[in-house]
Design brief:
- This protein is mainly α.
- The protein has helices at 8-14, 30-38, 43-51, 55-63, 70-83; strands at residues 17-20, 25-28.
- The protein has a domain at 29-83.
- It has a two-stranded antiparallel sheet.
- The longest helix is centred in the C-terminal third of the chain and has 14 residues, at 70-83.
- It is globular and about 40 Å long.
Length: 84
């Protein structure tokens, strides 16, 4: 499938993102993959504890519905550098 300029669904499919109708935003699914690799058991619970929020919000970050906050990105970087 060839992406056409101005067609957000085609562009999202081409870059392996997810187009959310009405939000005009394309989010990457790679965050969830990385988070699940770092915290394989109870990923949403782990992220919720780090960000001091609820599991439902963390699950929405993992699903790509919303971008995770900076504290979560920082925690991922710290965890990756600890393992390296």
């Amino acid at each position: 499938m060839r992406a056409m300029y101005g067609n957000p669904a085609a562009v999202a499919a081409e870059i392996q993102g997810q187009f959310r109708q009405g939000a005009d935003k394309i989010v990457s699914r790679k965050f969830g993959i990385v988070a699940k690799a770092l915290w394989p058991q109870k990923t949403a619970a782990s992220l919720a504890a780090i960000a001091d929020t609820n599991e439902r919000t963390a699950a929405r970050w993992l699903a790509g519905e919303f971008e995770p906050p900076a504290i979560i990105i920082a925690a991922i970087i710290v965890e990756i550098t600890k393992r390296g």
